[in-house]
Design a protein that fits this description.
The structure holds four protein chains of four kinds. By secondary structure, chain B is an alpha/beta fold. Chain B is 31% helix and 27% strand. In chain B, the strands form two sheets. Chain B has a five-stranded parallel sheet with strand order 6-7-8-3-9, with helices on both faces. Chain B has a four-stranded antiparallel sheet with strand order 2-1-4-5. Chain C is mostly helical. Helix content of chain C is 81%, strand content 0%. In chain C, helix 3 runs parallel beside helix 7 and helix 4 packs antiparallel against helix 5. Classes of the chains: A mainly alpha, B alpha/beta, C mainly alpha, D mainly alpha. Chains in contact: A-C, B-C, B-D, C-D. The interface between A and C is large, with 31 and 40 residues.
Chain lengths: 62, 204, 251, 222
């Protein structure tokens, strides 16, 4: 399982296709990084909102 | 024979009603009462099979209405808040169209009798869009004159009617009950139906 | 048979599914990471150059998994849709709604990487290849599904309407694919098309498989997470959600 | 069974005749769209002849989509849709009746108008004939499939745009084989294959899609 590339620079250059390869991988990584973050943020906002509603109802009952 | 057991309805996250059950035999009328927004219209739509209850069942002659499908709909006549008439058509055309839709064909005289009964004779060839709100309502009610189907589900049928029309409609429903028919209706005015036993159901 | 199936669905009620999904998500995230790193290592670092396409072919390691996932997720959505319509289970609607955004993103990724791969090979960003065109249409189907669900307020109607659309869509996908394929070969002949993927050495096949598994685990993890959020929102009136919120508060 | 379909179609046709403006607006939309393209592309006949099938088919497709929301919206607003759903025969048949009525009012006139517009694009006689035949066969599919979108988006705000978003992907096979048939005739390859597939799509659109539309209607009236 030897490494194909001789240097990190060569790895980045990707035989001249660097722009395209890293363009694809970059966007993919970005999306697969952002989507979970957005999902977590949505959940936090929802939990906060539901907790506020629950507190409002409790105050109304007292 | 119409029967329902522990019906439940949820709108948004508010439960409108739960555990609602009733039973209507031939010749009987179920009078549905409750404040605005208590789910009266929703319950009527459930009885027709338009809305599915969250829980509970409605049976017609012992069989669940959704499993009966067309068999049940052959016996059902529903009149909602909306008049269900086409503005571009004349009262005559509206009545014959709704009759044909119900699977019966009305002759010209029968249609004219029905329109005469609701006091619209002379306007039978005028497109409904030129009629007043009360007159449009009466075109919708004219459908009940020759209505032979067993179960009438009427959502506030007496609204926008003058005293004479209210009396006429009450008599019509009474005759329907006498013929062994059934009716489920909601109304805000105090109306006494001349015949049949009246059951009441209060939606809290 | 019917009642045994029904009580199986009783366990699939949101209340019992919520904690179950909560436990599973970390596992799927771990699997996605492990498979992903292994796949990247094999595909990007160890795999040799392709004699035809040089180094550019490596984009295939995310283009193909993304395409597979975009198709697979739509089929899973249609499965949940059919289940929801047949058994009226609340959970199925939530799962379909949770899957749609991830499916749409996978379709977009497939198009994006397809374009970036096409540019060095054929000199144009967009190739009217049968598969890429069908992928574009699949993205429209996803957007239609999400737009329909977003424009209906009542969640139950949104679920059922989305279910009908997903089922109609899944019936049409093969029809669309073959008509686009016919249209493609008719006008251009198959000279310019992605179907001629490079000869796959065993190593590359393994890399592709690992990346596909990684995408799959990732999609499940994100979809489950989003499904849990939807469950909290839709069942906010219930007792079990209040308890969950208390625990949330403590955590 | 058939009697009910005829009854529904007759009712809808009578209604459509009472409101001619809707039919005319669909036709004018088609005429305008088809006439805009030469202005945008240029009068050069050779090029226009090449683009004609696609332009005319896309124009007809968009015109049909323009009239889709009206398929159920009026009945939904005045309450007759509930009566149709509660009528004692399968809702699918009622929908077939409405789809046929919608086709008679939109697809058929578009198909008959297309050759007139085809002349603007300098198409030969046989191409014009195949164009009309392909539109006659294809537009029922457009009405049938479009009805699903109209039923799903009943009563929603922004319904018109949403219908086109839902229905466009499903229209693509019909467009491909419809425009392809004319193109095949122009290039002398013969259009039988295209027309037969178009016919299959039309049968699916008019006889199978309505059952999905019926389900969608019940959901929208919930």
């Amino acid at each position: 399982m030897s490494i194909h590339w001789n240097s990190f620079g060569e790895f980045l250059a990707m035989g001249g296709y660097g722009l395209y390869v890293w363009g694809s991988f970059g966007i993919t990584a970005a999306i697969m990084f952002m989507e979970p973050i957005i999902a977590v943020r949505n959940r936090k906002n929802l939990v906060a909102r539901l907790k506020r509603q629950a507190r409002a109802e409790r105050n109304k009952e007292q | 024979m119409l029967e329902a057991s522990n019906l439940e309805c949820v709108r948004g996250d508010r439960r409108l009603f739960a555990g609602v059950g009733f039973r209507v035999e031939g010749g009987e009328m179920l009078f549905l009462q409750g404040r605005n927004g208590s789910g009266k219209t929703t319950l009527l739509r459930m009885i027709c099979g338009l809305t599915h209850p969250v829980a509970g069942e409605i049976r017609w002659k012992g069989e669940e209405i959704h499993r009966l499908g067309e068999e049940f709909r052959e016996e059902l006549c529903y009149l909602g808040h909306l008049n269900a008439i086409k503005e571009e058509l004349t009262p005559l055309e509206n009545l014959s169209a709704s009759a044909r839709l119900a699977g019966e064909t009305l002759s010209e005289d029968e249609t004219l009798d029905a329109l005469e009964a609701v006091g619209l004779l002379g306007r039978e060839d005028l497109a409904c869009k030129y009629l007043s709100q009360g007159q449009k309502r009466r075109v919708a009610l004219a459908r009940l004159v020759h209505e032979k189907r067993a179960l009438w589900v009427l959502d506030e049928p007496f609204v926008a009617l003058d005293v004479a029309a209210v009396g006429w409609l009450a008599g019509l429903i009474g005759a329907h009950l006498q013929r062994g028919g059934m009716a489920v209706l909601t109304t805000h005015q105090a109306v006494d139906i001349p015949a049949g036993t009246v059951r009441e159901l209060k939606l809290s | 048979m019917n009642n045994r199936l029904i009580n199986w669905f009783k366990y699939a009620s949101p209340q019992s599914f919520y904690p179950l999904a909560g436990k599973m998500i970390p596992w799927f995230v771990a699997l996605a990471t492990v498979f992903g790193l292994a796949g990247l290592w094999l595909g990007m670092v160890v795999a040799p150059t392709d004699f035809q396409q040089g180094e550019g072919y490596r984009i295939i390691f995310i283009h193909v998994p993304a395409s597979w996932m975009s198709m697979f997720i739509y089929l899973v959505m249609a499965f949940w849709a059919a289940l929801g319509l047949a058994y009226n289970t609340r959970l199925s609607g939530m799962m379909a709604q949770a899957l749609a955004p991830t499916g749409a993103l996978m379709a977009f990724l497939s198009l994006w990487t397809g374009a970036l791969w096409g540019k060095p090979m054929w000199g144009t960003w967009w190739v009217w290849d049968a598969r890429l065109t069908s992928e574009l249409i699949l993205l429209f189907l996803y957007i239609g599904f999400i737009a329909l669900q977003a424009s209906i307020d009542d969640p139950r109607r949104a679920d059922k309407a989305g279910a009908v659309l997903a089922l109609v869509g899944v019936v049409n996908i093969p029809i669309i694919y073959f008509s686009v394929k016919w249209w493609n070969t008719l006008h251009q002949g198959s000279s310019v098309s992605l179907t001629k993927s490079p000869s796959m050495a065993i190593l590359m096949l393994w890399a592709m498989l690992l990346m596909a598994l990684s995408f799959w685990m990732y999609s499940i993890a994100v979809a489950l997470y989003r499904a849990r959020t939807i469950m909290l929102e839709r069942e906010r009136g219930t007792e079990w959600v209040r308890e969950v919120l208390q625990q949330e508060g403590a955590k | 069974m058939i009697g009910m379909i005829v009854a529904i179609t007759a009712r809808d046709l009578k209604l459509a005749m009472r409101r001619q403006a809707d039919i005319v607006s669909v036709l004018f939309f088609f005429i305008i769209v088809a006439s805009l393209f030469p202005l945008g592309i240029g009068p050069e006949p050779q090029l226009l002849k090449k683009l004609a099938p696609g332009v005319l088919w896309v124009g007809a497709l968009l015109a049909t989509m323009l009239s889709l929301p009206r398929l159920f919206a009026d009945d939904y607003r005045d309450g007759t849709l509930e009566q149709l759903v509660l009528a004692p025969q399968p809702l699918g048949l009622t929908v077939i009746g409405k789809v046929i009525a919608h086709w008679l009012v939109s697809g058929l006139p578009l198909a008959l108008l297309a050759p007139v517009l085809g002349i603007q694009f300098d198409l030969e006689m046989d191409a014009l004939f195949i164009l009309t035949v392909s539109l006659l066969i294809g537009t029922p599919a457009l009405s049938g499939i479009g009805a699903i979108g109209a039923a799903l988006t009943l009563g929603l705000r922004g319904g018109g745009v949403l219908v086109s978003l839902l229905v466009l992907p499903l229209y693509i096979p019909v467009l491909i084989f419809g425009a392809g048939a004319v193109d095949a005739t122009v290039t002398g390859m013969g259009a039988e294959a295209h027309l037969s597939i178009l016919g299959a799509l039309a049968i699916a659109g008019v006889f199978f899609a309505p059952w999905a539309t019926a389900a969608a209607l019940r959901i929208s009236l919930e």
